[in-house]
Amino acid sequence: MADKAHVERAIAACYATWADDYYDNYYGPAAAYPPVHADLVLRTLLEGGARCLLDAGCGPASFLRHMAHAPIAWHGFDLTPEMVARARALATEIGRGDAEIWVGSVLDDGAFRPPGRDIAFDSAILIGVLPHIPAEEDEQVLHRLAGAVTPGGLLIAEARNALFGLFTLNRPSFELFAERLVDWPALAAAASDAERAALDGLREALAARFRMDLPPVRTGKAGEPGYDQVLSRAHVPFELAEAARRAGWTDVEILYTHFHALPPMFERVVPDLFRRASLAMENPRDWRGMVMASSFHLVGRRQG
């Protein structure tokens, strides 16, 4: 079981230097990939009739800027004080000074309400947060998100797609095979002495089939831990959907985003074609997203 306090300190340190350029890197014109995830979330909120939104783990309020002209009241909290300070400044800059923004952790029951106030949220989103949550906390975080909205309220949670490793042919592929698909202890228990000796070298043989140097490890900017140096998990979509149902979600649907027309290691060979073809594939209900999309969103409603 992960030490939650240690995990949160590392996450906060990782993101402390991201506040000023996070939007440009992931939402702006210079982003490596257009913010198709944010477009999907906004479209889902508008079609779902959202009027008052809680953004759990809001960062520097990037989604608020993305939805600035939407007729939806926005409020949010984040673990990292630097992110919250930037979010408050942004809200004032774009005329959303009525937004409540506070410091809080999704691992804390009390964080899902602004201090001293009780707002009736009819929708809630959790974007970019689940990768940093210890596995044993997933269901409870989804339960807290559901508990933050009124009965029947709209819920959206985004996660990295572990099944993308079936397509990437790199280090995440090895991790999927070696840590999720192959049951090494069961094989060892069933093996003869000779077979057990042969098993010892199979992990290395498996790793040799993949580009273990890819993707490059993302490090920090100024000595702080980088994204790949803190807890940053991927999720199996079907497992997370079941966790959401146990946590009080109904009508749960899995929507896929950030498609890749080729395994990502080939992007550098035909970069313009790769980008055009990948964007053309963006269809959240395309079955190929199970393995060709690097992220997914759960969409559901609070029971009742």
Report on this model:
This protein is of the alpha/beta class. It has two domains: 249 residues, Rossmann fold (3-Layer(aba) Sandwich), CATH 3.40.50.150; 37 residues, no CATH class. Helix content is 38%, strand content 17%. The protein has 14 helices and seven strands. The chain has a seven-stranded mixed beta sheet with strand order 3-2-1-4-5-7-6, with helices on both faces. Helix 6 links the parallel strand 4 and strand 5. Helix 6 packs across helix 12. The longest helix has 13 residues. It is globular. It starts with a helix and ends with a strand.
Task: Annotate the secondary structure layout.
Layout: H1 4-15, H2 22-26, H3 36-47, E1 52-56, H4 62-66, E2 73-78, H5 81-93, E3 101-103, E4 121-126, H6 138-147, E5 149-160, H7 165-168, H8 171-181, H9 184-190, H10 193-199, H11 202-207, H12 237-246, E6 249-259, H13 271-281, H14 289-292, E7 293-302
Parallel strand pairs: 1-2, 1-4, 2-3, 4-5
Antiparallel strand pairs: 5-7, 6-7
Number of H- or I-type helical stretches: 14
CATH superfamily of the largest domain: Vaccinia Virus protein VP39
N-to-C span = 33 Å
Order of secondary-structure elements: HHHEHEHEEHEHHHHHHEHHE
CATH architecture of the largest domain: 3-Layer(aba) Sandwich
**Beta-strand fraction estimate:** 15-25%
In angstroms, what is the radius of gyration?
20 Å
CATH topology of the largest domain: Rossmann fold
CATH class label of the largest domain:
Alpha Beta
Q: Which structural class is indicated by helix and strand composition?
A: alpha/beta
